[in-house]
Amino acid sequence: MTVIQIILIAILVITSLLLTLFILLHKGRGGGLSDMFGGGITSNLGSSGVAERNLNRITIIIALVWFFSVVALGILQRFAF
After folding, report:
1. Which of 8, 23, 63, 78 has its CA 20 to 30 A from that of 36?
2. What is the 3-state secondary structure (H, E, C) of 55-80?
3. How many domains does the chain have?
């Protein structure tokens, strides 16, 4: 296993955990699984429109980093000798 693969695996693990955390931080829209676990009782105390937009941006950036690390690991695995 090369150093690049170890770094990519570490990035993949970290981004996976962060992606899970950021997805769980999103406000529930209602009508889905979030209602089943108490998301139906909403309050506007914890989130604002700007905070939600910033959380969306961060989540998308983390998801792109995760995606490209998966692709890079796949390419390295495919062409490893």
Report:
1. 63
2. HHHHHHHHHHHHHHHHHHHHHHHHCC
3. 1
Q: Which candidate, 18, 3, 6, places its Cα nearest to that of 66?
A: 18
Output the furthest CA–CA distance in the chain (Å, rounded): 56
Task: Report yes or no on 18 lying in a domain.
Answer: yes
Tokens of 17: 């955990």
Residue 1 lies in a domain: yes
At 27, which amino acid appears?
Answer: K
pLDDT (tens digit, 9 = 90+) per residue, 12-62?
A: 999 999 999 999 988 776 655 555 566 555 555 555 688 888 999 999 999
Residue 73 is part of which domain span?
Answer: 1-24+48-81
